[in-house]
Amino acid sequence: MKIMSGNSNLPLARAIAGYLELPLTDAAVRRFADEEIFVEIHENVRGEDVFVVQPTSYPVNDNLMELLICIDALRRASAKRITAVVPYFGYARQDRKPGPRTPISAKLVANLLTEAGADRVLSVDLHAGQIQGFFDIPTDNLFAAPVMAADIQARYGDQSLMVVSPDVGGVVRARALAKRLDNAPLSIVDKRRDKPGQSEVMNIIGDVKGRACILIDDIIDSGGTLCNAAQALMDEGAASVTAYITHGVLSGAAVSRVTNSALKELVITDSIMPTEAAKASDKIRILPIAPLLGEAIRRIADESSVSSLFD
Ligand code: R5P
């Protein structure tokens, strides 16, 4: 087995390799003067089971292209099996046609990965579970929930918890977390969005008075959804609001929005390499997911059960 990395999240790739007690594959992923990507693998990968770690986060197009070119290089170097390890799967939010003459970019990216030569995909908290079905190759979708639940139990376990979904679309994810937290009660924020990047909270479903609210979502991008939800929960009498979000996209002014929000704390994973601003914020904490990914990779390589990781 070999672990290779693009440039999108080298610290995560190194941590995964460390978990597996393997060196990272010696490869160069560089740019020509005109920014074209050039990949050169400096060791033999013929017949190897290779895992390429590359979340397709900002700059998403560059990171996606790097991943495709790495896969192409591995295929042409006769790797036996190539797994695209995409902890954050960019373009996933366009997973259906919201209106006429719009794309389904999640499907397009699935096609691109397959066409480049990926034999399998490993991701974490895909925006929608059905994206697995956009691939006709085996696709494992890991959940950060067990890692989050352990952290919540350790830090907030003695409080009167309420798990909150920031929108109707996240209810399944929130319910799964609530189950792991001794069946904590569930509340839902009725969010209406007029245009991408802007959200408006309309209503809180459930009684959050006096509760330590745990907001859970897959993505924090502009921070609008989360900060509005946190404010609405506090206005309804919540004792505190803490957010657990798998993918810290944190675009534009998101970090300062979070810092100035009603949130007590935002906990993200390192599926996307955290920015310096995110690392410097005393409201943001980062949970490592290399052990989860490393264990899943070990099981895929050994052909043992991945789903039992979540029992
Ligand atoms: C939407 O369906 C996602 O689950 C997130 O709620 C959304 O992407 C967050 O975006 P923002 O932080 O820009 O409100």
Automatic annotation (TrEMBL):
Protein keywords: ATP-binding, Cytoplasm, Kinase, Magnesium, Metal-binding, Nucleotide biosynthesis, Nucleotide-binding, Transferase
Subcellular location: Cytoplasm
Cofactor(s) it depends on: Mg(2+)
Reaction equations catalysed: D-ribose 5-phosphate + ATP = 5-phospho-alpha-D-ribose 1-diphosphate + AMP + H(+)
Active-site annotation: 191
Binding, Mg(2+): 127, 167
Cellular component annotations (GO), alphabetically ordered: cytoplasm; ribose phosphate diphosphokinase complex
GO molecular function, one term: ribose phosphate diphosphokinase activity
Positions of the Ribose-phosphate pyrophosphokinase N-terminal domain: 1-117
Top EC class of this enzyme: transferase
PROSITE patterns: PRPP_SYNTHASE
UniProt xrefs under Pfam families: Pribosyl_synth, Pribosyltran_N
The protein's annotated pathway: Metabolic intermediate biosynthesis; 5-phospho-alpha-D-ribose 1-diphosphate biosynthesis; 5-phospho-alpha-D-ribose 1-diphosphate from D-ribose 5-phosphate (route I): step 1/1
GO biological process: 5-phosphoribose 1-diphosphate biosynthetic process; purine nucleotide biosynthetic process; ribonucleoside monophosphate biosynthetic process
Cofactor annotation comment: Binds 2 Mg(2+) ions per subunit.
EC number: 2.7.6.1
Subunit organization: Homohexamer.
Family named by the database record: Belongs to the ribose-phosphate pyrophosphokinase family. Class I subfamily.
Protein name: Ribose-phosphate pyrophosphokinase
Organism classification: Bacteria, Pseudomonadati, Pseudomonadota, Alphaproteobacteria, Sphingomonadales
Gene name per UniProt: prs
